[in-house]
Structure formats: C-alpha cells, structure tokens
Amino acid sequence: MKAFSYHRASGLEAARQQAATTDAAILAGGTTLLDLAKCEVARPEQVIDITRLPGLDEITVDAQGLRLGALARMARVAEDAAVRTAFPAVAQALSLSASAQIRNMATIGGNLLQRTRCAYFRDPASFPACNRRTPGSGCAALDGITTNHALLGTSEACIATYPGDLAVALVALDAIIHLGERQVAATDFFLLPGTTPEREFALAPGEIITAVTLPASRAARRSTYLKLRDRASYEFATVSVAAGLELDAECRVATLRVALGGVATIPWRARAVEAALTGREPTPEAVREACLLAMQGATPRPDNRHKLELAPRLVARAIETLLWEERA
Ligand SMILES: Cc1cc2nc3c(=O)[nH]c(=O)nc-3n(C[C@H](O)[C@H](O)[C@H](O)COP(=O)(O)OP(=O)(O)OC[C@H]3O[C@@H](n4cnc5c(N)ncnc54)[C@H](O)[C@@H]3O)c2cc1C
Ligand code: SF4
Questions:
Q1: Which bound ligand lies closest to the C-alpha atom of 24?
Q2: Quick one: which of 126, 110, 109, 112 has its CA closest to 39?
Q3: Tell me: the pLDDT tens digits for 199-229?
Q4: Pairing state of beta strands 211-215 and 182-185?
Q5: Ligand 2 pocket by C-beta < 6 Å: which residues?
Q6: Does pTM surpass 0.85?
Q7: How far is Cα 325 from Cα 247, in angstroms, rounded to an integer?
Q8: Domains (range + CATH), the chain
Q9: Residue bearing the CA closest to ligand 1, atom 3
C-alpha cells in the first residue's frame, strides 16, 4: 500500500478544497477505501477524514420524506423504525448489505461511491488491462470469467457491474443526491461506462455527498428489496430488485417503481416493466408478462445468461409480495 498523509477536515469547505487536489481521497467509514488502497487500485497521496464534521449524520423522516446525512452509518439507518415503516426498501437493502461489522462502520455516502467488484479491476498486478482503472488499457474481463458481470448498460470498454444495494432502492424511489448546494437525481448520478468507464459518478473534483433525500409516497411506504446471492450473508447480489407499488381505488396499478441490481453497470431502473403494468389490473398473467421486459436490451455473455431468466422472476416475486401485502 502506498504511504499517504492523513488530514482531519476542519470544515466542509476546507474538505472540498483539499479533496479537489489531485490524488486526494475522502475518508468516511474507510471500509472500501482501505480495501482499494491495499490492492493498489486507490493510491491517494492525501486522505481527508470527514467523519468528525458535524451535522452530516442525521436521519430525518417527516411528511415530506426521508433525509439521510452522508455520514449516517448503514446500521443506524437500517434499524431506524421510521425508515423501516416509510421506506422499507431502503432499510431492507441496507440490512442485506455486507456484514454487521461493516454496516456499523460504513456510511451512506461511502456506500453509494463503492466501486465495482470486477475481479480484474481489483487485481492490477495480474491484470494490467482495465479501462476503468487505466483508461485505454483494454478490458481483461472480455476474455475472462463473466458470471458476475453486467448484461445491461455495458459498452465495448467495460462490462463491470455496479455492486451496491442501497443505490438500487434509491434509484427506484426517485432519490436526490445532495452535493452541498448542487443536487443530482439518483437516476443521473451513476454513469454508464460508454467510452469513459473511469468516470463512474456525476461528481466534480472535490465535490462531497452531504445528504440523500427521498420523497414520501405510498409507493415508497409499500416497497420492498429482494436480493439473490450465492450465500445467505456477506455477499453481493447475483440479482436484486427494489420495487414500490400503489394501487388505485379499483385495484389497478396507480404507481409502480422497479429497479434492478447485480445485472447492470449502474443501478438499473426497469421503466418498461413500470409502463407495462401502470393503469392495469395486476393479474398474475399481466405481472408475468410485464416482468419479462425487465431484461429488455440485455447483452448476455455465456457465463451470465442465467440472469435473463432469474431477473424477471425476482421482479415478479417482488411485485407479488407487494400485492399480497396490499391485499392483506
Ligand atoms: C467483504 C465486503 C462485503 C460487502 N458487501 C456489500 C453488499 O453486500 N452490499 C453493499 O451495498 N455493499 C457491500 N460492501 C461494500 C460496503 O457497503 C462499503 O465498503 C461501504 O458502504 C463503504 O462505506 P464507507 O463509509 O466505509 O466508505 P469509504 O471507504 O470511506 O469511502 C468509499 C469511497 O467514497 C468516497 N467517499 C466517502 N464518503 C464520501 C462523501 N460523503 N462524499 C464524497 N466522497 C466520499 C471515498 O473517498 C471512497 O472513494 C461490502 C464490502 C466488503 C468489504
Ligand atoms: S469489466 Fe470494466 S472493470 Fe472489469 S476489467 Fe473490464 S474495464 Fe476493468
């Protein structure tokens, strides 16, 4: 690991200025930054510790919605009774993430900015070719094992999956990411790789996530997060689904929100599924038919083709779970 100098930020503006310099990195919970530094993917000269900055760890739920400070710990948000009631998909996504120890340490802002788990990206010594790590160097995954790589949102430059859980719930429920004064919709915050996979987030140099907000809605209150993974805990998603549902007085779908994790280069909003069911009676046939659209436009590889079937089934299960809760 490369040696770095440690700075404790005295204020938000000072942290922004320090972080804007080349080779500086913000330190929050450190659970990802330390990993990346150890495998030499991150090689900061300076680490700017923002964990002592006041006012960035609040959790507020009111009639308008939810506000999570960027330094709120994952475990605190997951266990918050008001979040669990008004935004169950958010609490469930966090509960199903990582391990208890990591959730106690890691923050909301750091969680959103975690980087891909592509094994080739994380092993520079064995795999020098990685466009995301070293622009223009190629992509080792294209000739490698791609079980955990993306089927949606890929480009010739990169097929790595976005690994986080929380972001999938935020994208489904129309969250806003606050960067001090500037605000970005969660659906615009995560960037498709295109020809510049090294640009992963809509963040300018030195910008710091200060909070995340979600509007209150009946679909957020009636929401869920389902996660399939190779083992029952401490594992990233093979496929995950965040869904929120509101029925009208005639029991037709008034609002449906669906996003997918584990299958795309960014947290993936499944708008085709939403459009196919909105305004319709959600019969089992209608739900099944709509869910087949979840992987519309997918480009599978031999190792991850099974997700073409897995993802629509999990979306259907999420919607059926919400319908069952709504009618109970
Ligand atoms: C073994 C293991 C299993 C895991 N499993 C899961 C899982 O199943 N699901 C899941 O979602 N995650 C999982 N994770 C990832 C884990 O959730 C993240 O490591 C954690 O959320 C990162 O938060 P942090 O506060 O520790 O971030 P840090 O490591 O402090 O920071 C992460 C990145 O964000 C930057 N940063 C941090 N805060 C800010 C801010 N406010 N503004 C701007 N930049 C900032 C840092 O510079 C760094 O680049 C796993 C991690 C490990 C090690
Ligand atoms: S898939 Fe992306 S992150 Fe993985 S090796 Fe290729 S360019 Fe790098």
A1: 1
A2: 126
A3: 999 999 999 999 999 999 999 999 999 999 9
A4: unpaired
A5: 116, 118, 120-121, 130-132, 139-141, 158-160, 197
A6: yes
A7: 12
A8: 1-50 (3.30.43.10), 224-327 (3.30.390.50)
A9: 98
